[in-house]
Amino acid sequence: MVVLGVVSPQYILPLVPICKTQIPPSSSETQYLTRRKALMFTSSLVSSFIYTSHHSATAFQVDEFQRDEDRIVQLFEETSPSVVFIKGLELAKGSNGSTTVLANDENAKVEGTGSGFIWDKFGHIVTNYHVIAKLATDQSGLQRCKVSLVNAKGGSIAKVAKIVGVDPAYDLAVLKVDVEGDEVKPISVGTSRGLRVGQSCFAIGNPYGFENTLTTGVVSGLGREIPAPNGAAIKGAIQTDAAINAGNSGGPLIDSSGHVIGVNTATFTRRAQPYLKL
Fold first, then answer.
1. Dihedral sign, Cα of residue 196, residue 199, residue 260, residue 137
2. What is the overall mean pLDDT for the chain?
3. Residue in 115, 124, 130, 255 annotated catalytic
4. How far apart are CA 72 and CA 216, in angstroms?
């Protein structure tokens, strides 16, 4: 092995550590060694840079994802206290007609559920007309509207709501609950003007009775036309791919700043696309 290392210079470098007697390299060999060491040093620097850059990029991405999650969590925590759960109840015949909320809806039939949001500190609530249509057209005196909400301290309260205004042509209604002694949190009101397709949006409501449910999506389309409960056409509706199901009706669609930009109507066409209108 030692002899082979002397016969051809191209084998010298790998075998030098094994030789007991080293042959001084020529000037050309010295240059080759210097270039090799420089190349190894440069490669080490490049590898270190690539590793550091990749590690930094990965850490940056993780931080970005965490910030996005934290932002959505904060958005929900700040907005959900302004969203209410609405139940349409039919009292049993022979009831005294009291407007007192019955505990656990005892002796009352649940006609339907929906959502709404607190408009102001006086207890006005915005929802869909079709959510409270039976109460609005009731002639028996047995229909009631029970609203579950939270006060500013986070306590859950239930109130009987009265209708103060309806607009079937736009599928909108305004309810009023007595909040005397309770401080409530009105929702932050935005505008549906200037919306762009692809803009992030979030829906909060009570689909299928599951309270405080958040779904996310984007504005899928603008200027849609959907049917109103009275058969008229509602123009200028917003289309979204955020999941909206039965019970979301009347709840808010909010933007990334937590401002309400629409009312979830949960109105579906044959293509099962949800639409919204503010």
1. positive
2. 79
3. 130
4. 9
